[in-house]
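Holo prediction — PMT.
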Amino acid sequence: MNEDDSYSATEPGPLKNRTVILGVCGGIAAYKACDIASGLRKAGATVHAVMTPHATSFITPLTLQTLTRNEVHVHQFDEGGHWKPEHIELAQKADLILVAPATANTIAKLANGICDELLTTIIMAAQCRVMLAPAMNPHMLDHPATQFNLGVLQHRMRYEIIPPDIGEMACGDYGAGKMASVEGILATVASKLMERSNLTGKSMIITAGGTREPIDPVRFIGNRSSGKMGVAVADAAHARGADVTLISTVHVERSYPVVVVETAQEMQEAVEAEFDTCDALVMTAAVADYRPIVVSTHKIKKTESEDLVLELTKNPDILDLLGRVKRKDQVIVGFAAESEGLLSNAQQKLKRKHLDMIIGNDISVPDIGFGSDYNAVVILTAEGQRENLPRMPKRAIAEHLLDLLAARLENVQKAPV
Ligand code: PMT
């Protein structure tokens, strides 16, 4: 067996489904980033290395590329032909960013919001946890500017510093500034990533996007859902180890199964095909309540008449149907998009559709809900609990929802059936 293959396909590592961005800065400790990259990958994580240009003076991108089995990113504007800027794409993929070694220079940039190269730009664009393992000469670490910058970052929500060790430096000086041991860094990162592993082995269906009900080959009845809320829930569930199936009207490329559908009936079929074997269903999709009775096979022509009357018929209510037949050990969660009477309408839907939870959002508020990266919601449970979450990124809402869902699944699956 190759040194690098200690976890086989049948024995996935504990960090399976976790994506780590390994930031490497220009310092002699950069060579230890190779062992970190290798350790993370052996533990099952997907690792994307991002090097500062200075780091390439110490180790080559090829070394990290071989160890991570992924392309290594160095320069800010190498977009590689992708339509989405590299820093945004990588930032969205990450469950955690580890910068090891983190130099005084990069720490100063992060403390001051300077993004003049790819690594700092990715960190600014990401919403996940950032762990920094400083490594530098003891006088540089002790310098008031570095101490001030570390203090600034320590007080920021997403940042965590892995303290450097005391020892002899490569330059011959002795003191604090030696990067923490590779084993220590790997253990800290793993425990951070495993904190949220509470959906391992659970099977989840998540729906996303707005259905389209065809009128003719050109036109359809649709809505403004972008699928972002559903994809945020699916990504977060996948990162926690769940076996996710995303049923979506919007095509996204993911490492978990994505079933692309168009109409409410197609969505119903896809959800029902998986429902029996799932532990939880989360319906963020905006499903059309009605569809045209007749779908014209030809493009409908403009006629002399001023009016065109479309006759509509009711679509199946997927949640309503499944809420009636769900087993006691399954959890189903709905979303409610309301432009008025948020609380009372969400409460009614929770009850009528036999849901365990409903997440209500007021779509009349600008810059949340449809199409936005943000949402503000009220969460209602079947037992009458209520919680308001203020405006925050959809991924943060998804994480909170999954905390509640995981606790709920644990209870219902422990209870005698
Ligand atoms: O996709 P984004 O741009 O990120 O926007 C997110 C969102 C605003 C779409 C999302 O947060 C949201 O509110 N989703 C629910 C939208 C909706 O259709 O709500 P509703 O009140 O019409 O339906 C209530 C629930 O029943 C929903 O879970 C819906 O999926 C489900 N439903 C509705 C109709 C139907 N025929 N079958 C259903 O299962």
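READOUT: The chain has two domains: 3-194, 203-410.
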